[in-house]
Amino acid sequence: MDFVIPCLLGLEGPIAQELREMQAQDVRAENGRVLFSGGAEMLARANICSRFAERIQILVGAFTAESFEELFQNTKSLPWEEWIPVEDAFPVKGYSINSALFSVSDCQAIIKKAIVERLKSRHHLEWFPETGPVHQIQFSIMKNVVSLLIDTSGAGLHKRGYRIQAAGAPLKETLAAAICYVSRLRPYHTLYDPMCGSGTIAIEGALAAMQIAPGLHRPFSAERWENLDGSVWKTERERAKDLEKRDCDFFAYASDIDAEVLEIARANAQRAGVSDKIEFFRADVRSFSHKSERGTVICNPPYGERLLDISQAEELYKAMGRVFTPQRGWSYSVICPSETFEKSFGRKADKRRKLYNGMIKCDLYMYYKG
User: Is there a contact between 33 and 12 (Cβ–Cβ < 8 Å)?
Assistant: First the structure.
């Protein structure tokens, strides 16, 4: 099977690397997506174990179409009967960018009709109840190239199940995990997040350090499909549990100025099963201090868009620059959309990496030279 992972710009590299480590085949990163190949076990493994992917989709087919007739005929020619049983639901959604077929609603209707016609001819039926498990059809049309996919994940993979409540403007779990990865957080490191909010960075850091699969305790759409061997999900969950290393030396200190937010963070860590690896406490980032000889500081400060105004945000960045001092054995990673962050912080970053927090274009400013 061929698979596609749609992703935010900036996460293609980390996703491709983790897929290779999972032993996926034919891994190749493109702008905004990563493609790979494998069997049913890889479909389950990627869903259960990927820290950075938003969802796993099966690539049913791709072709060029500049007319609705081409779209209909090419869609109809694909083997939909191999994936969609008689009673199962197959809603269609998607998007079109820089293409002759620009009407999304028309494309949606034509693709749906083509799939129905294909299933009619193969199942010898005139009507489909669509009362069974969902096979969400996703189409993308980019510069007249149509990709037709089936989603296997259901809810986005950032929904690990531990964050029932969120505080303020939280990072997605997948982005928090990616920032930990890019910041070279290791299982023997001490992590600090002095503006922890819901605790997502500390929790994702702990999950990665202990090699706990992020999707271990949540369901996926494809688990209900009758055309996939259900035993692969049990096998892959057992494989993931065997890889856990809960006795690592990792520890995190996560603080915030808001006591109510800290209660949410503690509850999230408890649900994630990592509360013994994180100490939460109330503190202002302006009074940040070290609790270890070495440390990896990763934080997501207010952006001046939802939590603070611009001038307040800049004052906060100046304060961070004063307390995040260059020292041997210490690194600091700050995700921020401000193009003047370095000026406010008082130092040029040793490295910058572009990432997107939702629709907000950000830079990850990294400081690691002592």
Answer: yes
Contact assessment for residue 128 and residue 119, using Cβ atoms and an 8 Å cutoff:
yes
Half-sphere exposure of 299 (CA within 13 A, CB side): 25
Spell out the domains of the chain, with CATH numbers in brackets.
Answer: 2-151 (3.30.2130.30), 173-212+243-367 (3.40.50.150)
pLDDT digits (tens, 9 = 90+) for 342-353: 999 999 999 999
What's residue 280's pLDDT? Answer: 98
How far is it between the farthest Cα atoms of the chain? Answer: 72
DSSP E strands, the chain: 2-6, 25-30, 33-37, 57-64, 92-97, 137-142, 145-151, 190-193, 251-256, 278-282, 295-299, 330-336, 351-357, 360-367
CB atoms near residue 145 (< 10 Å): 12
Query: Position of tokens 């960045």?
Result: 317
**Cβ-count burial 14-25 (b if 16+ within 10 Å, e if not):** bbbebbeebebe
Enumerate the β-bridge partners of residue 15: none
